[in-house]
Amino acid sequence: MSPRRAGALPLLLRLDPEGKQPLNQQIYQGLRSAILDGRLRVGARLPSSRMLAADLSISRNTVLNAYERLAIEGYLRGQSGGGTRVSTELPDDMLRAQVPFVSQTPKQTRRKISSRARRMVDVPVRLRIPEFPRGLRAFRIGACALDEFPTAVWGKLVRRQISRSGISGLDYGNAPGYPPLRAAVAAYLQSARGVTCDPEQIFIVNGSQQALDLSSRMLLDPENTVWLEDPGYVGAHGAFVSAGARVVPVPVDSEGIQVAKGVRHAPDARVAFVTPSHQFPLGITMTLSRRLELLRWAAKSGAWILEDDYDSELRYANRPLPALQASTHRIP
Question: How far is the C-alpha of 190 from the C-alpha of 59, rounded, in Å?
């Protein structure tokens, strides 16, 4: 079919003068669909707006509006002396993800990524969280009672803060986080968790996994050793392996991580990752004597302790326990 003359093109367009959409929109959609499904091929010449308008018994401006929109969006192109034709490069083709041609084998292709990326790819993902809302149920790992969240109060607070901060709140912020928020977090940690820190030591992240990734990159060199509670958090294991560290599992008993066994298997560990307030996944609270034992080892060996304060404030009775840092003054 060659739409050089208007007689053939109207067969592709089904106009409804009584329809809800204006005629120029109907022409636009009809031509765009014909182009995308191949009924109007790339490079095909369209009739002039005057000829098509006459054949459809409508205003020429209606056809011009449709042609102009298709041209602006890249479906049509005008040529001097050549009329209006379907573009050789359609905008929809640019929006589709093209499968690249790979001449190498998968093993050869993998060599092109960094060694850190290869370690990340090799980390097995064993923890699968059901997607919301199908997975919304009691005792689901890593989620609180989302149906009890005070959305109305939260919405009021957000609107109040937006009205106060104005347009400046939409600009780029401080890299470690919003300064007033960091100051508020530091003040809260001091009163509620016994942590001594300045706002400059607070970094706002989007979750514990980002915190673990940043900490791993700052504290660990490849082949450094890390103590990890056994059983323990698989997300922490993945972050340490991705950083190139050697992870040593240290058993957990009724008092928490068994420091003596950690020293026996890896005395030169650079980092110990623990969940003292609510051990994950066993739920044990680390005793004071075991906390002091861990702190003495870290002080003597120069190691870092990464404390994941998991579920620290979710307690059935009494106040939350102080963080490990609050007990450093007890080390003899």
Answer: 75
